[in-house]
Amino acid sequence: MSQKPQRKISKAAIGAEIEKGIPGNDILRVSGMQQLRSFRSSKAKSQSREQQRLVSKYGEQDERVIRMNTSLDANSNYISNLDMELNRATAPRKKIGTTSWNVQGRVYDQQGCPVVGADVSILSGDGHRIEQIPPTKTDTKGRYNITYQAQKNELVTQADAKTSERASAIRINRNTVRSEQVFVRAIDSRNDEVCADSTLMVPKPGSCNYRDLILDIRQDDDYKVGNRDRRSSRYLGNSSTTELHDLKNEKAQCQIDNIRIDHCFNFKSEKEARALGYDYCAYCFGREKSKR
Fold it and tell me: 76-116 pLDDT, tens per residue?
């Protein structure tokens, strides 16, 4: 019995289907995060009342007060991470032309508060600012939005080394003959030393990128910030890949320390992470549990 030849599907077609996503998935995920935030906010109020009671009864240096302060800080950090993930999940996708490229996101301080009036620029991979893209400033909610309209001579087509497919890109850096990766840099207007860089990306015509940035706070700055601890709980999610790690069974391949701090999302349990659509890491949870 002859078998029908398998139909080959191009990478472009696969990418288009992935881009569509699962119908309703984003809505369900946002709803779950909003419910979780409501619960965490109620918990913070309860903790705050208990902390005040303990201080009044035992004083600020009592061990019970110190433990409660630690719990308060951990919950506050969790809410801050949750707010950033909600902002990312609910950001509207900007409709742009087929020869334009867009990047948007938010700038935060290390406490997760939006930074107003930060200068945001597009830089080439070697760290030089792309002159033809004017810098912008973040608004009252820390948001920035940059759209670049490419010229005809800036549109290039590159062949994939492993396939015969060709992909379009924008040669924003006019000092090169090919397209190259770029990144976003934000600088706090109050202090040029306080800045943050995004991960690299390739500008593609008709596409939008989303990049959040958390300002780097130097040790000698006069900022009072709570350092985000990616190991403050057993279960750590990478919001960039929606992958869940078990830090009690961490493997070298997990590369926990390489996860961007603004993509670290601490969970109290596996169930909590799974409810938000996170999948298991194949290294620390085992390939039998991971769907990747």
Answer: 888 888 888 888 888 887 788 888 899 999 999 877 888 99
DSSP β-bridge partners for residue 167: 158
Q: Give CA–CA dist 100/192, Å, rounded.
A: 30
Close Cβ partners of 122 (under 8 Å, ≥ 6 residues apart):
103, 129, 130, 133, 146, 148, 172, 182, 183, 184, 185
- For residue 172, count CB atoms less than 10 angstroms from its CB and return exposed for 0-12, middle for 13-18, buried for 19 or more: buried
Contacts of 43 (CB under 8 A, 6+ apart): 75
Please name every residue paired with 186 in a beta bridge, in sequence order, or none if there are none: 120, 196
**Res. 50 pLDDT band, cuts 50 70 90:** very high
Measured CA to CA, the distance from residue 102 to residue 203 in angstroms comes to 8
Check residue 143 and give its pLDDT. 94
**Distance in angstroms (rounded) separating the CA atoms of residues 172 and 178:** 9
Strands 207-210 and 100-108: parallel
175 token code pair: 């000092």
Nearest Cα neighbor of 135 from 63, 60, 188, 186 is 186
pLDDT of amino acid 275 = 81
Edge-first strand listing for the sheet containing 195-197: 136-137, 119-124, 182-187, 195-197
